[in-house]
Design a protein that fits this description.
- Among the domains are: 157 residues; 206 residues, von Willebrand factor, type A domain (Rossmann fold, 3-Layer(aba) Sandwich).
- Helices cover 48% and strands 7% of the residues.
- The strands form two sheets. Strands 3, 4, 5, 6, 7, 8 and 9 form a seven-stranded mixed sheet that branches. A two-stranded antiparallel ribbon has the order 1-2.
- Strand 4 and strand 5 form a beta hairpin.
- The relative contact order is 0.07.
């Protein structure tokens, strides 16, 4: 394994990093190992609001016995990690790296019950606080471990590479580039994420090298995302030939895996702005021609069609319909010899790029794989308090909120075009998807959907997490997982904060959805229907966030918009 070179030690010393701190309590790593062992064995309930006096934190004295009744296991983990980090040595880093590895393949279970992202986030935050040279050596060795093929060693390599990327230092570029060249897709994914975090312009050549033949969808998404971040930050300092190579790599990747990876490539093409992007983007539009074989459905998405059209307009200043690739081809045939990329970005009008398939509470439906997750809890039987007619609704004073939701759902689905697929999940005490998988928006399915919605009644609590989990088929939180259902647009309608379910904390739901959606590329739009002001105020005081704030963040963090009533 790679050792710290004398030059690196000198660089770290000149950077003013603190010397090794004196040991505070050498038992801390043992306490952390015990906590982690119990957690991985499924013996710790992260929702539990109090820990026992026999918990590792209390037994080793890192949590005062009189506080055990007032903290949960996540807070206990924070206390133990703090004690470990105070050691500020190699053993401390190795111990914390185990926590930062939770949820990677081979460390922990696949299911969502353990919520590894919560534990991993705690570990990562403390790994990032150790600057002692011996601790950094542990990170470097783990990140450079080419023998790590699977299980815990590979998980530690992934965690270490990501940690080095967060340090944003050129010194660690060799380990990041080594991960990008690794045999294991998990290591390459970590390398791409580290490039995005570090934003080192010097990593562009290796990103190009890796993505040129990459077959893994997630690595492509993360890699093009990293290129995009780097180019945005260093555009003026990046040579034109380097930008051209980035564009070539993105163009060659189009159609190689899925529409999700293609979305990432198209996003990059808008920024690198090259003439060689025009013809391939036109061919992306051509995928949606009715005469094209439908056997490649995973390359099609209404959102990809619209995005490709937006970038074409931005690059060319031409304006032909997204549904008319032949017009684009004819124009390009006559213009390509003297074509120059438009100097000023041409922003198309909102929604202009795709024939509208209707709207939901005034939010345009631009996806072609649409999921509605709708609140039918008891509070939805309350009177509509919002503006009538706002956002395109047809609400009437005195109507129940569930009545308005029912009408808007039927209107939205009725206008879906034949190339769309859709589904709905109704949640209350539990959650119930209408169909096991998304179905075609044909007349037969629309009528069946209408019969379902006509019988919709409000009852029970607000188990939003179950609605999201069942609708998106979220079965694993292992690093690099994505939703089992490949929707491209999700609408969430609710009238309050979660009150039931395995996960009720709105902040945790935001964290988990943001993490799991990074590679699913799902746009999430939200509709919030306000309830009783006093009830909402009390709920916000308890959880530190109002229902309106929660729904806004859910949309903002996942590329959507939010409407509130």
């Amino acid at each position: 394994m790679t050792k710290v070179r004398p030059a690196l030690v000198t660089i770290l010393a000149l950077a003013g990093l603190a010397p090794e701190a004196p040991a505070q309590d050498p038992r801390a790593p043992k306490a952390l190992d015990m906590w982690l062992g119990q957690y991985l064995a499924g013996k710790l309930d992260l929702d539990k609001e109090r820990i026992s006096k026999s918990s590792p934190g209390v037994r080793f004295g890192f949590v005062p016995e009189d506080r055990a009744a007032n903290i949960g296991h996540v807070e206990e983990l924070e206390s133990i990690c703090r004690a470990v980090a105070e050691l500020a040595n190699g053993d401390a880093m190795a111990s914390l790296l185990q926590v930062a590895s939770v949820g990677f393949r081979g460390v922990g279970k696949d299911g969502v019950e353990l919520r590894p992202q919560v534990v991993r986030t705690v570990g990562e935050s403390w790994v990032d606080r150790i600057d002692a040279i011996a601790g950094l050596q542990v990170l470097i060795d783990a990140a450079a471990n080419e023998k790590a093929q699977k299980g815990a060693p590979l998980a530690k390599r992934v965690a270490a590479v990501r940690a080095l990327g967060r340090r944003k230092d050129e010194v660690y570029r060799p380990q990041i580039e080594g991960a990008l060249r690794a045999e294991q897709a998990e290591a390459r994914l970590a390398g791409a994420e580290a490039c995005a975090d570090s934003k080192l312009r010097t990593t562009l050549p290796v990103l190009v090298e890796t993505l040129s033949g990459e077959q893994d969808e997630l690595v492509l998404i993360a890699g093009f995302g990293a290129m995009l971040d780097i180019v945005k930050q260093h555009r003026d300092a990046t040579p034109e030939d380097a930008l051209r190579r980035c564009a070539d790599t993105a163009v060659l990747a189009l159609g190689r895996t899925t529409w999700r990876a293609d979305m990432a490539a198209v996003d990059l093409l808008e920024v690198v702005r090259s003439a060689q992007s025009v013809a391939p983007l036109i061919e992306v539009l051509a995928r949606f021609d009715d005469s094209v074989d439908r056997g490649q459905d995973d390359l099609r998405s209404g959102r990809l069609q619209e995005r490709a059209w937006e970038v074409l307009v931005s690059l060319t200043a031409a304006r032909f319909p997204a549904e008319s690739p032949d017009q684009w081809r004819s124009w390009w045939e006559g213009a390509k010899d003297e074509f120059q990329v438009a100097a000023v970005k041409n922003d198309p009008a909102a929604g202009e790029g795709r024939t509208t398939t209707g709207d939901f509470f005034g939010i345009p439906i631009r996806g072609s794989r649409v999921l509605f997750v709708v609140d039918a809890s008891g509070s939805m039987a309350e009177e509509w308090r919002g503006d009538t007619g706002a956002g395109g609704t047809t609400a009437q004073k005195g109507e129940q909120k569930i009545d308005v939701a029912r009408r808007e759902l039927m209107k939205a689905v009725d206008k879906l075009t034949a190339d769309c697929t859709f589904n709905v999940v109704i949640f209350g005490n539990g959650a119930k998807p209408w169909q096991r998988d998304m179905v075609a928006a044909n007349e037969k399915n629309k009528k069946a959907f209408q019969r379902l919605i006509e019988d919709l009644r409000a009852d029970g609590g607000t188990n939003l997490w179950q609605g999201l989990r069942d609708g998106l088929k979220l079965e694993s939180l292992v690093y690099g997982s994505r939703y089992g259902a490949t929707y491209d647009q999700l609408f969430v309608l609710s009238d309050g904060l979660p009150t039931l379910g395995d996960i009720q904390d709105p902040k945790e739901i935001l964290l988990l959805i943001r993490e799991t959606n990074r590679y699913s590329r799902l746009r999430i739009d939200t509709v919030y229907i306000a309830g009783d002001p006093e009830m909402e105020k009390r709920a916000a005081e308890i959880v530190g966030m109002s229902g309106s704030d929660f729904m806004k963040k859910l949309a903002e963090q996942n590329g959507g918009i939010s409407i509130g009533y």
